[in-house]
Amino acid sequence: MNTALKKELLPRYDVVVIGSGLGGLTCANRLAKAGHSVLLLEHHFQLGGLATWFKRGGHIFDVSLHGFPYGMVKTCKKYWGKAIRDAIVPLPNIVFNNPQFKLTTTFSKEDFIRIIQEKFHIAEQTVVEFFKTVDSMNFYDDQSMTTRELFEQFFPGRSDVHRLLMEPITYANGSTLDEPAITYGIVFSNFMNKGVFTFEGGTDKLISLMTTELENNGVTIVTRALVERVAIEQGKVKGVFVNGEFIEAGAVVSNAGITNTVDKLAGRDQFKESFLEQFDRVEVSNSSCQVYFGLRKGETIAEIGDLIFSSSAPEFSAAEMRRMDTSSRTFSVYYPKTRPEHPDYTIVASMNADYDDWAELDDNQYQQAKQEMIERCIHDLERYLPGIREKIDTVESATPRTFHRYTLHTRGTSFGTKFEGLDISRSLHKEIPGLFHVGSVGIIMSGWLGAINYGVIVANDVDGFLHS
Ligand SMILES: Cc1cc2nc3c(=O)[nH]c(=O)nc-3n(C[C@H](O)[C@H](O)[C@H](O)COP(=O)(O)OP(=O)(O)OC[C@H]3O[C@@H](n4cnc5c(N)ncnc54)[C@H](O)[C@@H]3O)c2cc1C
């Protein structure tokens, strides 16, 4: 057995979970709590998947802790316990700054309704009708209407209102105006409800609390454990091959991305032609770039907002937001309140990005492109915090290549797949009994809240399967 698997392992587990993203962690925890023996295998040395952090120059940088909806409070209380629930706090100041408008909002429904009336001069009835329509959308509705058509129906020709309503969702999951309005509606009504929330203490604290909970419930956790293949015999799951060793399992839950799960871990030869035809239509969502800034100890900055949607693009454009030289980015500003036990100032600039733009660059071109991206971010940040360049002592950056390297996800996707991925994920165990997928699919199941909720749903499926 490889040194990565130094732990004493059983020859067989009721369930093996591949990957420790929020979906994998939640699923493993629920199944262990239900009394099953669970082995969690993660190829990286750290748990959390994209819910991750890293240390540089004495700072701790959060990668995907930019904001999640209020629903996290209920979900975490119910499925992860009080300590995690109690650390969820609001992010009160959300700023938009672009050529069409500048405003600060609490990101609550009431505040959005007020702003659209007062600042954009739209009749109250229209705004209320829009929110009613979006709130009442459900997954089984007609899926032919696009988000663009939905916006045109309520706010015809108002590209400024479209931008206010769409830009945060595009940052949150890469979706465009041409995707089904239903996917927009569900994410929007989740977010535009009681504001945006964060985790006090940072991602490291969240994952540490989750790890303790998993261990208390008896989950065996192994990191640096790359699952090479799911063992399937006569169409049924038998276990996994990890770092060259076979481990038997009653069921396998893959958190390794639905495309990798089908193409690489199970192998296409295990599936029917009709399933593969549908699977080949699944599109992965785009990836991300980030630039991380740490401020020299002793330096301070003014409160400029917690999350800033900053753009110089004349109008909203999902394509512009993915360009390498995009002028559209979010700045997440982490003040000392983020980690009261380790007070610090860090700022993370996040941009949507296409994997292909970065994948083909040679080493020199890659380093140069990263440097140019860093420069663009500092230049932009200077607009909000003049003189910030002199206060920064640590700079790091990530590209779609980085996200691919750490998660192995197809094209370094940050948000799983588009809409079609959900059906494939849900029908996997009907194709291969005992094989389940959990993790970001179909926008609705993506993000911190979506991944955790999906972990609960899949754990119920697996529990039912193991008892059947
Ligand atoms: C830059 C960025 C910013 C984001 N910001 C936000 C935000 O502000 N709010 C929000 O709600 N969401 C945000 N997200 C999205 C959110 O982080 C993800 O949707 C969520 O964390 C994904 O969870 P998951 O369960 O799908 O698994 P993932 O996090 O994708 O984890 C999958 C895990 O499987 C492991 N794995 C893969 N293959 C194997 C293998 N063969 N063997 C063993 N292990 C394997 C990987 O190493 C990884 O740990 C952001 C994402 C990114 C990239």
Tags for this model:
globular, FAD/NAD(P)-binding domain, 7-stranded mixed β-sheet, alpha/beta
List the helices and strands and how they pair.
Elements lengths: L11 E7 L3 H12 L4 E4 L11 E4 L2 E4 L5 E2 L1 H9 L2 H5 L1 E3 L3 E4 L4 E4 L3 H10 L5 H12 L11 H8 L4 H15 L7 H11 L4 E4 L2 H15 L3 E3 L4 E7 L2 E7 L2 E10 L3 H10 L5 H7 L7 E9 L11 E4 L7 H5 L6 E6 L11 E8 L1 H5 L3 H22 L3 H4 E7 L1 H8 L13 H11 L3 E3 L9 H21 L1
Parallel strand pairs: 1-2, 1-13, 2-10, 7-15, 13-19
Antiparallel strand pairs: 3-4, 5-9, 6-9, 7-8, 11-12, 12-13, 14-17, 14-18, 15-16, 16-17
This protein binds flavin-adenine dinucleotide (FAD).
Distance between the termini: 33 Å
Number of domains: 3
- Considering DSSP H and I runs of 4 or more, what fraction of the residues is helical? 40-55%
Radius of gyration: 22 Å
Oligomer: single chain
Number of helices: 18
Tell me what portion of residues adopts beta-strand conformation. 15-25%
Gross morphology: globular
Largest sheet composition = 7 strands, mixed
Mean pLDDT: 94
Number of strands: 19
The bound ligands are: flavin-adenine dinucleotide
Provide a descriptive summary of the structure in words:
This protein has 468 residues and is an alpha/beta fold. The protein has three domains: 3-45 and 223-283 and 415-467, FAD/NAD(P)-binding domain, CATH 3.50.50; 53-90 and 197-202 and 286-407; 108-193, no CATH class. It has 18 helices and 19 strands. β3 (53-56) and β4 form a beta hairpin. α1 runs parallel beside α9 (202-216), α2 runs parallel beside α18 and α4 (109-118) packs antiparallel against α5 (124-135). The protein is globular and about 60 Å long.
